[in-house]
């Protein structure tokens, strides 16, 4: 047919050049697909404001410390992102973190279990706890909110019981957990090497994908976009590496956090299982009818969430200097959930990505650190963090409404 | 056309109950390769429920389902997929947050070295949508931002991914314009020519008469007539649907009683 020759004016074809990107951006804003754009801008604004106020926010020492502090809550936030993608919530991550840190400490300190084995067992214990949540939620059909609320209480009780008559257990001197807070690869080639590998890996993946798309006759990104993306990634990676090297080098905590992020990102975006998580979060009944084992997906996501909480708990213990009866209580849970949402993962399920765990914890930690530098008390910090969370949820809700009205369904 | 091949899928005595509602009672249905079986009936007659039992969404309470002569158990959607049954649901069952390609391949993702093969999926999606002459703004936007008709078309295309032997379409043209409806009916005929068994649910008797070989009527969850299209008039089908008559005898009786219709 002749009409096939002329492109349909309604088809979305991006114009060439920057104008095209601007159009594309406007379309996404109108359609409510903001994703993580607001939070990236937020991080930049926060950094500028605190730098202007205190003058020493952007020092290598401060930035390096933020990177280390972010790792524990960030790893836990990755688990929350997975749960939020299902459209559910996990209120137990703080208690599970505390419980598993206590398990680790008791095993390695009181019972002389090998350090690595104790770490593995603690994380596995987290996975078991999550499987229990998942069982009640996915199998029995109890709302996840209630199951994990029960877990929130129950596991912190168990944590106190596990700790027994010990108020706190300090980290053994030669433990790997101590390194989760205090170890730095001080050779400058470590940070630069990692930055190089990340940039090269990103560029290679992008290049290979575009080449395959071209071979298959599909639309490809213009070269300018590929260059721009590579430059942005390289700039972020190398500036971070430079700053870290100005202080004490590449922190082990950051390496582990990045590894968790990359693995989770790969799982979500490149595997069938990841696709299934999004599908269940978008429309569980449709996912079921497509032959997806919804129960399995839900169960495993909850066990991953708790396993990641356990790992994050070890980082928290490392920062606190040891496990205690109260580790993981307080605002850890709220900060972690807030981080995932602030980072751009929707509370309504099915929309978001793993990197919101990084972005969101960066926002929260920057605010905390910045206000500390300014000498603000913790009440003010709570109120400001609360306001930021509310803002993030408002953005999420509004963009969801926009998307609905744009959806015309 | 009239050559009656052995049915690829046969239901006999199928019953399904939802709490107090007896949705299906002793329903029989046969689907033959290379034939279009229309399933008609009033709202709430149990059409969607019947095809959902075939698709594995609602397992049957009693009765048997046989696939190529062998009794099979369809307990979950995956079982039906494995047999080669593809279904377009009345409520479409799409994931609004996923893009068109992801929806088309949901549950049957193509992989390359155990990693999702996005390129191959996108290429096949474009080809598939092309054969259906469907215009969609972009295959990479979330389904939420498509129009009702475009979504319906995506749902139909979804059923053609993989190589099904039986395709079930539950009111596939309900949201479609004149041109798209004609295209879907063409598609149904193409599927028949390819030797697939097709079940078409529709309220439009003209459409049914245009493409179906056989019409099965459901009324209040029971079989209420099975007609070959070539020797049945539209009125006869409508009479069976409304229950005005299943045959001449009851029609006369109904006329005498002034209609026993509504109970
Ligand atoms: N999941 C369910 N739970 C309870 N009752 C149901 C369920 N699904 C269907 N029913 C009932 O079963 C009966 C048949 O419904 P069904 O959807 O099969 O009708 P239908 O023939 O497809 O009607 P329509 O033409 O309106 O689509 C109705 O009385 C309906 O209320
Ligand atoms: Mg129906």
Briefly characterize the structure.
The complex is a heterodimer of chains A (409) and B (263). By secondary structure, chain A is mainly α.
In words, what does this structure look like?
The complex is a heterodimer of chains A (about 400) and B (about 260). With about 400 residues, chain A is mainly α. Chain A has a domain at about 40-45 and about 55-180 and about 270-405: ABC transporter involved in vitamin B12 uptake, BtuC. Chain A contains 16 helices and 4 strands. In chain A, α2 packs parallel to α15, α3 (about 60-85) runs antiparallel to α13 (about 295-320) and α14 packs across α15. The longest helix of chain A is centred in the last third of the chain and has 30 residues, at about 380-405. The model of chain A is unreliable at about 1-10 (pLDDT under 50). Chain B has about 260 residues and is α/β, with parallel strands linked by helices. Chain B folds into 2 domains: about 1-85 and about 165-265, Rossmann fold (3-Layer(aba) Sandwich); about 95-165, no CATH class. Chain B has a 6-stranded mixed beta sheet, sandwiched between helices. Chain B has a 4-stranded antiparallel beta sheet with strand order 2-1-4-5, covered by helices on one side. A two-stranded antiparallel ribbon of chain B has the order 7-8. In chain B, a hairpin with a 2-residue loop joins β11 (about 215-220) and β12. Chain B is globular, with a radius of gyration of 19 Å. Chain B starts with 8 loop residues before the first strand and ends in a 6-residue tail after the last helix. The interface of A and B includes residues 212, 271 and 349 of A. Chain B: Keywords: ATP-binding, Nucleotide-binding. Chain B: One of its GO terms (molecular function) is ATP binding. Chain B: InterPro entries: AAA+_ATPase, ABC_carbohydrate_import_ATPase, ABC_transporter-like_ATP-bd, ABC_transporter-like_CS, P-loop_NTPase.
